[in-house]
Amino acid sequence: MTQQIIVGLIVALAALATATVALASPDPRSLVLKLNDLPAGFSIDRKETESRSNATVARETSATMTKLTRWGRITGFQATFTREPTLRGLLAGALEVQSLASIYRTRHGAAASFVETRRACLKPPFKQLSVGRRLGHEAAYCVATRKSGNTKVTVYVLAWRRNNVTAGVLLAGLAGVVDPTEAVRLARKQDARIAATLK
What we know:
This protein is of the alpha+beta class.
């Protein structure tokens, strides 16, 4: 139900990406949310949980190899979690959660990539939301609601940067059911993991 919307948003998130010295490169799998970070009822979508090489990003999104190379993107990881679309699941909140992280050689490269992500969040049909207190070193939060058949689907996208890592959390579900504070809560949990890993 949410696939087309999510694919479009991944284009912006996959391009996520201010020092000049290359920084350490952790395992990107350690930078995303885990199943036990989510509310009960979710399971891992193993087909959509994978490493995101530059070649994969360039092949599946609008980010070109030229841009990825200029930004110094090293690699990334995407974890996807889904909830069964039963009546109980539909009314429980988000039906799908994606957690993404990309690692860059420098903070400068990550920041340059994040500029494009922020720009995408400013364009219709997205509307900007407040993330509240500071998240990472910079953040952008937006929401869009579209029709999928006869159903209105709301997608919340929260992207941020911490040092040379850019990250994103995407929540999708029935309009009026998904709590916007849930994206913020999950993003802060993921950011804490990133901060601890980068120490």
